[in-house]
Amino acid sequence: MVSDYRNRHQVEHFLRNASAEELIEQRSRIENLQEQAPTALGEAERLIARIAYELRFRVAQPI
């Protein structure tokens, strides 16, 4: 889990090393935070997009 989304080093480390389950859990957590505090949409949306990108490499894709 990422405890501070403003710490780019911590976020990058998590994104590169997290399992698919951890990424999905983190994405859900961010989406829940968005619902509670919609003012930080820009950064949260970028992080959700990056998680989706990282998930492509961890979840088997149907052919």
Furnish the topology, listing elements before pairings.
Elements: H1 8-17, H2 20-36, H3 41-55
Helix pairs in contact: 2-3
Structure description:
- With 63 residues, the protein is mainly alpha-helical.
- The protein is 67% helix and 0% strand.
Q: What share of the residues lie within helices?
A: 55-70%
Total count of helical runs of at least 4 residues: 3
Cα separation of the termini? 31 Å
Number of DSSP strand runs? 0
Q: If you average the pLDDT, what whole number results?
A: 81
Q: What does the radius of gyration come to?
A: 12 Å
Low-confidence stretches: none
Offer a few descriptive terms.
3 helices; 63 residues; globular; mainly alpha; 0% strand
